[in-house]
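Consider the following input, taken from an annotated entry for Disease resistance RPP13-like protein 1 (Gossypium mustelinum).
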Amino acid sequence: MAMVGEAFLSASIDVLLDKIVSGDVMRLIKGKKLDTARLEKLEIILKSVKAVLNDAENKQFTDPDVSSWIDELKDVVYEAEDLLDDISTEALRNKVESEDHQNTRAIVKQVFTRFLPSSNPFKDKVEEILGRLEVIVSQKDTLKLEGNSGAEKAYQRSRETSSLVDESGVYGRNGEKEDIMELLHRQNLYADNKVDVIPIVGMGGLGKTTLAKLIYNDQKVAEWFELKAWVCVSEESDPSKVTKAILQELPGGCDDSQSLNQLQLKLKDKLSGNKFLLVLDDVWNENPNAWEELRIHFSFGAQNSKIIVTTRHENVTAIMKTGQSYPLQTLSNDDCWELFAKHAFVGTNPGMHPDLMAIGKAIVKRCDGLLLAAKSLGGLLRCNLDAAKWNKILHSNFWDLSTDILPHLSTDILPALKLSYYYLPSHLKRCFAYCSIFPKDYEFEKEELIQLWMAEGLLELSNDNGDLKERGDDYFEDMRLRLFFQQLNAKESRFVMHDLISDLATSVAGKFIYRLEGSNGSCEITKRTGHLSNVQEEYDVRQKFQSLPEAKRLRTFLNVKSSSSWPYVSNVLMHDLLMKSSLRVLSLAGYENINELPKDISSLKHLRNLNLSKTSIRRLPNSLCTLYNLQALTLHGCSDLVELPRDMGRLINMLYLDIRGTKLTRMPEGMGKLKDIRILTDFVLGDETGSSINELGKLKHLRGRLAISRLKNVVYARDAKDANLKDKFNLKELKLTWDEYDDIDGDSQHDREVLEQLEPNTNLKHILIESYKGTRFPEWVGHFSFSNMVFLKLQDCKFCISLPSLGQLSSLKSLSISGFSGVVIVGEEFYSNGQASTKPFGSLEILAFEEMAGWEEWSCRSDEAFSLLEELSIRDCPKLIKSMPKHLPSLKKLNIANCEKLECFLPGTPSICELELEKCYALQLEPLPCGLRKLGIEGSNMNDSILEQMLQHSLISTS
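Applying the prediction step yields:
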């Protein structure tokens, strides 16, 4: 029995209690006093059971009777949850139909007729569940299960929730780094061996990957090697997948449809003659044949290429036929303490808490110099200054528990990690255990995981009800700060779990959560399997899912895309899944051969989350709109999808609708009924039918990203005002598109009025305006009040004759302007209209002008503008003759292409290191910037003097 039993049960009981007291359910039940009494009795019993669950969790490890008691309780609680879900679904149906102006009383009467007559099986089912629960409750005294000593504290947000963990603060590894850097820089040991392999060997949790990352990202390494690639190998044994992963890290990537032979030839071509560094992280495979198949291609690289391998297994070193391995030692106590303190004492000085320092240093000694152990326990005690809590960790018997007491936990799992889980609040325990559904090294999005938690009822609402999405954000941030999740880098929203953390999640979840990996992996699916993930293979045939019918109460089927190019799934899977009436989550993402959804999808009435992204679906059956519990529908990348079901407005529980990358031509009518929706990625305006733009005004909770397309179909500008974008303060990204394929000059004044009425909230960070037909922009575009704007792109606005005053946007970092055929001069109005006193473009780092067919002059009189600009690109501006900013002190990269008449000198800048010029015949190049490291010249003026300068600079790349 797994540790997660209590955590998931507690969540389910909370869901049951919420349903019992919910207004919709009670309105249906109160017509029959006897049935109300039954539910009240059920509520009392459930509260009695929940009170002893914490004690049951602790005793299940040593008492098999308690373990069996939890199994029985789990079965009956899930049956009860499905039963009450049936009632609440009817309540939702009632709510939807009452909006169609039907008589509500008649509907309620119809519901009771269906569900609650004295001879109805529903009544018998309630009695059966009550009887089984009474028996279970009566056993708690025999098992000596005791209630909670005190109520668990309500969830509170951590004090610090926004800043990233500083992974650059690596402690105690400077010596090791320098040793390996020396190995990378020196000549290969053997003349006939072009590639040296450097294995970093050590047990899990020592920090092998952290050390390798530190080396990989060092600036010296970038100078020493022409190509770099980082690949997480983990337990992967297929050479073709490793080959593909390497190619994807190299410039140009690879085609998913290529065969193994094609991939290997491409890798050979990429590496040939190039000095490369390859990091193979977390290698487990001890098969010499697999390594030999890869090694052949590495030999085509230039002399002194290097491969760093991180592994727990000394055998890998022997198989790779390397010289001496580099065994990584444990951290010293002092270094371990520094790392622990960094995470435990956030926002305070450890010296101010001498009592905690003494306890903390004793805890650190028990970490045995393991980096992951110190980080995890530091994260566990983050911002907690209660000495009693610290002592509890120090003296916990988890440090000494043997596998006889915890037989389901692997001996490879560090005691510190067990402690980190054990002392999690119960609401985070169940959320963490659910993460075991992800395969090792799976890179997941924050939003993806929160949606899954939400669908499974794992997010608790506070007394003020609040917002489930915000609660999910809080949970996720808390677990990230406790270091259960690692962000890949600061610029990405993807996360991963350390493999030892993943092992811990798998151990605590037990058989309740199972991963299907490999074509014959279904044998361990049992009747108690509640959550199942499937790692796609190229052909997911019937045999793979032969044990699926065993999972009687399956609640999750999550498809996880592998590296297979065009995965195929057996039709049997869809048939079997439609029989799983308890499903809350269904993902069939990535199966190209799925082109329709059966009408029987309506049988999955408990479904909360449906993911059909990157399938070949063209249309969805209207029966989908009877899934009143549906919260999330993901259709991202369904490039054949042309329309949504006509009754989408009935899905009143919808919170998330992702329709990016589809071919929708309109939104169905009634989208404004989805009043609770938080994420609506796109809103497509039809020409005559479907939802009009004013429907957006009813969607008051929109957040994140919104793209409104086909704005040419807005009939009246006042309808655009009714969209009420100005009050949608949680929107961060906005895309406004007219019609990219329409080159006909429309009503310029009408388009300007529409755009003027679409003024968004000033919290917006990203905006893209595309194919706008007006001649000028309204005043809000570039207004200084948009102080949060960091990214702006104006594209294909062919009829505009001037640019807005964008220099007033004080936080703008990236600006792209393209396709403005009517702009002749970029003048002073581009920098300011006199309303703001800040330096023009004071934060801008990236600027691009492209396809400006009529642009002739760029005027810039101020030396204060563009003070932080690092990258400048000017492409396809054939009439541009003169004037560029003369003073760009921070410029590092300059790209000018197809500007045949541009004749000015390059801007003076001391920091430029990359220069690319293409077909710039009149541009004055001399003298070349002294710090230049990379120069590309094609079809431009290049004389002997320039060639001599290039040789003096020893430029890395010339053409």
